[in-house]
């Protein structure tokens, strides 16, 4: 626990100034985090079979292009160029399987990597988009994750009796999940009302849905770890695991925000 607390303090000291300042330093930081997340996917895949270097390289370039693309109308030409480049690189990642034997690199492997790149790229690009639009909106989304995760943990320890999905995450309980979503929705909604915009029932509903989506994201990544017999995606953050261990719910919440964007 001591190691976990110290790591959390160090992360906050590093992350808070970067988030507050925003601009290019935030984009660079998110780009680095996304690459570290992809590295954990590579390591997971390579625990079963190696990934060709050219495929790794194309994947990293594709991810950075996707993460760092700016979503503004004035950049429509750049969108076209960037996304054509991403599409070409992703096709190369799939097409590369033609030049390797099945025990080296397959089309199935290619689809796995393409899916991971699209997932991480879209989520981390949304993170940049939200922060560039509004610091408080960004904090609101992160607050959903923090409050839901924290109170689901303590609520489950205090009141948890019924397991949520034991074969995926044996320690999570239905009671903890409900408490987490209740506190997460309430706390984040209050923050939204006072620091983002006047609260509406649509925003409260969207906040509740995002809290649930965040928990689903946590469970999805937990199942991925369980399927591969690992406890953490890496040991990058002492006491916390890797990038994907810390950003699993956030990735899901960012994707959920895209789906619910019209409600805000």
Question: How would you describe what is shown here?
Answer:
It is a single chain. By secondary structure, the chain is mainly α. The protein has helices at residues 2-21, 23-46, 53-68, 76-95, 107-133, 135-159, 174-195, 201-227, 243-259. The protein is globular and about 55 Å long. The mean pLDDT is 90.
Write a concise synopsis of the structure shown.
The chain is 75% helix and 0% strand. With 264 residues, the chain is mainly alpha-helical.
Name a few traits of the molecule.
single chain, 264 residues, mainly alpha, 2 domains, 9 helices
| Most strands sheet | none
Radius of gyration: 19 Å
Helicity, in percent? over 70%
Uncertain residue segments: none
Write the layout of secondary structure elements.
Blueprint: H1 2-21, H2 23-46, H3 53-68, H4 76-95, H5 107-133, H6 135-159, H7 174-195, H8 201-227, H9 243-259
Helix pairs in contact: 2-3, 2-5, 3-4, 3-5, 4-5, 5-6, 5-9, 6-7, 6-8, 6-9, 7-8, 8-9
